[in-house]
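Subgroup meeting minutes
Present: P.N., E.W., G.H.
Scribe: E.W.

1. P.N. recapped why we're keeping a running log of single-chain structure predictions: easier to compare across weeks, and new members can see raw inputs and outputs side by side.
2. G.H. added today's entry (141 aa).
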Amino acid sequence: MKSKAGWVLRDSEGRYPGGVQATGRCVNNALESELQAILMAMQHAWSRGHLKICIESDNRKAVDIINGLTLHFDAYNWKREIQWWKQQFQTIQIQWIGREGNKVADKLAKHQIEDNVSFKYHYYVPRFITSELHNDYVNSI
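Output recorded in log:
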């Protein structure tokens, strides 16, 4: 099955400059899907000139693999490619965040995009994530 990914860009003040929906390659399981989503988010951030980034994922196993806390042979190639991309940034953190803190990205990933589109950047807040973004803002104050 092709994996679906979603991520939100935020500036250093926590403001929303954009969100992304993407369809990746076919993967075998949820772990590979998450690793692919992290890789795509890194590549996208780099392509936009962001060299200091923090990636938050609600998949603790993926984060632990990337950060070298857990070994997982099946994820070796994903980890190797992510490690290469990490070197392209001045500063990068990849950390775990609870599912409650990742609702906006989850909604982006699950929301249907057109069949012939594999990447969609939202310069403006799409209507289907407004309540999650509002809740994130309210809970961060």
